[in-house]
């Protein structure tokens, strides 16, 4: 490929459009639907602004030779180009830092386990220290400062190759830990098989970000071993911008799905039909179905993924207040008593339930939360089960 400038312009333009749509969907849903705008939402907005500025700097840099081979670039443009690249790196590190903290704040809201909270706090410290040190090392890499732009000035600069190797490797290591944490936190969730697969697929989208981060390490190796500054560094910048924007899109995926289903309601029924065909009846909890009355279904499945609890109630008949308090006919064969629900069970399940279901998962005094991604199974209390028995 002889010139990357056109690729830089159109790729950044597409990524900016997708990122802005994702962030607007997330912010709009949190403000107007949920009525709550948390720390993680604000950090995602900051990350989107930083990623957009980073992309704009890249596109402007193409006018100064970024993306072309060094032999074709006017040497008079290099000082201005280096200034733009130096400034753009600050926004790259800021975006990466904001996404990491946003995800960690989100994780802290879905788990209350002590060991999980400790690991989240440790990662907060690692992410903050790494982000701050990256910005400072990038800005003050040379003494005096102008030597980063004008190499002929007497002074000293750190080895750029070593800095990029260490920074990209550390970035990949922290991302691996960050995207693996939710899989550990939610491994004991009691979900239907298809919903658990869907939840893991959502978290696995972080693998796309990890792939971009790994490719960035390879491009840095090529940049160090085969010098061609304006050409090789353009490849690093492209992979960096893809990494940033993909991380934001992954963080906004739940909001994008909810908004899409709201705009295209017919897609909701299609998803529900698909999941009903995929999910076998054996995936439901075992209970005795000796009666076809409304009393024969001891659990209430609320479809919080699609935000349609009414249709779920029609699909899965549940016990009404009259059924519980009324006298059952002698001919009615009641189901076996369901197993008692242990309220002191896994705290992660309860935390995710409160996060994903703003009505049934909300405790007294807590603010409402938004609808989420999974089917959450709500059991009746032991008292109600005892009355049935």
TrEMBL record:
<feature type="transmembrane region" description="Helical">
    <location>
        <begin position="37"/>
        <end position="60"/>
    </location>
</feature>
<keyword id="KW-0812">Transmembrane</keyword>
<feature type="transmembrane region" description="Helical">
    <location>
        <begin position="84"/>
        <end position="106"/>
    </location>
</feature>
<keyword id="KW-0472">Membrane</keyword>
<feature type="domain" description="Rhodopsin">
    <location>
        <begin position="26"/>
        <end position="259"/>
    </location>
</feature>
<feature type="transmembrane region" description="Helical">
    <location>
        <begin position="118"/>
        <end position="137"/>
    </location>
</feature>
<dbReference type="InterPro" id="IPR049326">
    <property type="entry name" value="Rhodopsin_dom_fungi"/>
</dbReference>
<keyword id="KW-1133">Transmembrane helix</keyword>
<dbReference type="GO" id="GO:0016020">
    <property type="term" value="C:membrane"/>
</dbReference>
<protein>
    <recommendedName>
        <fullName>Rhodopsin domain-containing protein</fullName>
    </recommendedName>
</protein>
<feature type="transmembrane region" description="Helical">
    <location>
        <begin position="197"/>
        <end position="224"/>
    </location>
</feature>
<feature type="transmembrane region" description="Helical">
    <location>
        <begin position="6"/>
        <end position="25"/>
    </location>
</feature>
<dbReference type="Pfam" id="PF20684">
    <property type="entry name" value="Fung_rhodopsin"/>
</dbReference>
<dbReference type="InterPro" id="IPR052337">
    <property type="entry name" value="SAT4-like"/>
</dbReference>
<comment type="similarity">
    <text>Belongs to the SAT4 family.</text>
</comment>
<feature type="transmembrane region" description="Helical">
    <location>
        <begin position="162"/>
        <end position="185"/>
    </location>
</feature>
